[in-house]
Design brief:
Helix content: 40-55%
Radius of gyration: 23 Å
Shape: elongated
CATH architecture of the largest domain: 3-Layer(aba) Sandwich
Oligomer: single chain
CATH topology of the largest domain: D-Maltodextrin-Binding Protein, domain 2
Number of helices: 12
CATH superfamily of the largest domain: Periplasmic binding protein-like II
Distance between the termini: 54 Å
Strand content: 15-25%
């Protein structure tokens, strides 16, 4: 087994094809194809299903990809260690967040400290965040719970209650509080089932004997916000994420408090990466110490 063969396989797998892998490696497509073919022949294993223009991983290929993700990530960490100042001057940090709102002040401080580092932020629910970190598709995650797994390095950002909200001209808009029983009589707009906010809300309403069923299910927090703003019903969000929107009014839920513990997380095995460590250091300086 040669390094170049594993590198060719890894790039075909993550880029989804031989042509894109060749572009990423600055090689010709035949050269990449040849390296993968030699790897498959040497170990008598099929790593890719080749159906016309579509290339997909076999089960063996998926298992090997899990290993090469770790392998090449460790290689990148070694490079970062050997060229620390360069990594902090021109690296790339990938973040996936259930709500970027919690990151704004941290991100601003990080950008001031490391202005040349490229930062990408993708949106996703709790399940997406966890999956992206495990798949090495993101370096840092932000999610609305404290994960119990020992796989993660965790920094708690805040803890705020779940509230309801409606458009200013909606019938409930004039109320300061609303009960589960009242909510059950209105069209409810909720996020997809992977949303931790929805899970906590449904669990508490069932515990109180008034199950809540959404009339509209929307993918993502912004979609819920726009539907509610248009008068489509009542939505739910943590108070920290409600923000400023003149079209909407917050309504406190008259029930046992449902707290969303927002946390900054990364895989423990990647916590010593230069960019990840630098971002966490900036965050620790800005997050209030627990009482």
């Amino acid at each position: 087994m040669r390094y170049v063969q594993l590198r060719a396989f890894h790039n075909v797998a993550i880029h989804g094809g031989f042509s894109r892998a060749a572009e990423a490696l600055f090689l010709t497509q035949p050269a990449v194809s040849d390296q993968v073919r030699k790897l498959e022949e040497e170990y008598d294993v099929l790593l890719f299903n080749r159906n016309k223009k579509q290339v997909t991983l076999t089960q063996a290929g998926q298992q090997l990809l899990e290993i090469t993700r770790r392998m090449f990530d460790v290689e990148q960490q070694a490079l970062d260690l050997l060229s620390e100042s360069r990594a902090l001057r021109a690296g790339k940090l990938r973040i996936v967040a259930d709500a970027a709102h919690h990151l704004l002040h941290i991100l601003a401080a990080f950008r001031r400290a490391y202005p040349s580092v490229q930062v990408s932020i993708d949106a996703g629910n709790t399940e997406t965040v966890i999956t992206s970190l495990h798949a090495y598709e993101a370096d840092i995650g932000v999610l609305g719970e404290i994960p119990q797994s020992s796989d993660f390095e965790i920094l708690k950002l805040n803890s705020t209650p779940i509230i309801a909200f409606a458009s200013r001209d909606y019938p409930l808009a004039g109320q300061e509080t609303v009960t589960f029983r009242e909510l059950a009589n209105h069209p409810l707009v909720m996020r997809e089932r992977g949303s931790k906010t929805r899970q906590k809300l449904e669990a508490m309403s069932e515990q109180c004997g008034v199950p809540l069923t959404p009339l509209i299910e929307a993918e993502g927090r912004e979609a819920v916000r726009e539907i509610v703003a248009a008068g489509g019903g009542v939505g739910f969000v943590s108070s920290a994420e409600f923000g400023q929107d003149s079209r909407l009014v917050p309504i406190r839920i008259d029930a046992p408090e449902m707290l969303m513990d927002e946390a900054l997380i990364c895989l423990r095995e990647r916590s010593n990466g230069k960019l990840v460590n630098a971002f966490f250091d900036v965050a620790r300086q800005l997050v209030p110490s627990p009482a």
